[in-house]
Amino acid sequence: MKKEKSCGAVVYRETGEQIEILLIRHKNGGHWAFPKGHVEKKETEEDTALREIREETGLEVLLDTGFRRAVTYSPKPNVKKDVVYFAARFQSGSPEAQPEEVMDIVWASPDKALQLVTYQNDVETLEAFLDYEKN
């Protein structure tokens, strides 16, 4: 079995009393999810998450490793993929979709984001982040 590892983050920004969640629509499959990508060579999980967010969205964020959620699934036969998500607070930049990988980028309320994300493991990751963010 082939093993793959990706890292990313639930990116959020504060808008007054509320928060908004950044979601991207991936070209590969058209699903809504969080920015993430494969770990390269000697990168740490944190380095990968920051690089992928920058590449896919053009945004600078502050990573919060106090939130760390790992998800494992099989994207195709004989492949096991681990994805590690952190929380990431928006710092600067304006969302710009990486044309090779991203079709669209939106900021959404937590309720809207829960409706938009395509896969159940992303719903569960977002719910875990929202619980973490409340506390």
Automatic annotation (TrEMBL):
Question: Residue ranges of the Nudix hydrolase domain?
Answer: 2-130
Checking Pfam families in the record gives: NUDIX
CDD domains, per the entry: NUDIX_Ap4A_Nudt2 (cd03428)
| Keyword terms of this UniProt record | Hydrolase, Nucleotide-binding
Q: Which domain of life is it from?
A: Bacteria
* Secretion signal, residue range per the UniProt entry: none
What InterPro entries does its record include?
Nudix_hydrolase, NUDIX_hydrolase-like_dom_sf, NUDIX_hydrolase_CS, NUDIX_hydrolase_dom, Nudix_hydrolase_domain, Tetra_PHTase
Family stated for the protein in its record:
Belongs to the Nudix hydrolase family.
- Its recorded name reads Bis(5'-nucleosyl)-tetraphosphatase [asymmetrical]
